[in-house]
């Protein structure tokens, strides 16, 4: 029973894009590892950019500079 947790920042990812992630990862596990889609669990966790850091800095601040 595969269990996949995808962490992304909460910044405008659409419902349709999330569905594409769920179906795509499920299909990949079926193709590569022969895992049953009926037993494959995908969880998408969204995190505010204030709560995500890279290189010692909040993603919010990094994106402000771009």
From TrEMBL:
It comes from Chitinophaga solisilvae. Keywords: Isomerase. The keyword Flavoprotein does not apply. Belongs to the 4-oxalocrotonate tautomerase family. This is Tautomerase. NCBIfam families: taut. Its EC number is 5.3.2.-. It is an enzyme of class 5 (isomerase). One of its GO terms (molecular function) is isomerase activity. InterPro entries: 4-OT (IPR018191), 4-OT-like_dom (IPR004370), Tautomerase/MIF_sf (IPR014347).
């Amino acid at each position: 029973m595969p269990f996949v947790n995808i962490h992304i920042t909460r910044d405008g990812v659409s419902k349709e894009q999330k569905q594409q992630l769920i179906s795509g990862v499920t299909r990949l596990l079926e193709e590569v590892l022969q895992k049953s889609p009926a037993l494959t669990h995908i969880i998408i966790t969204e995190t505010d950019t204030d709560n995500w850091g890279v290189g010692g800095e909040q993603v919010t601040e990094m994106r402000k500079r771009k």
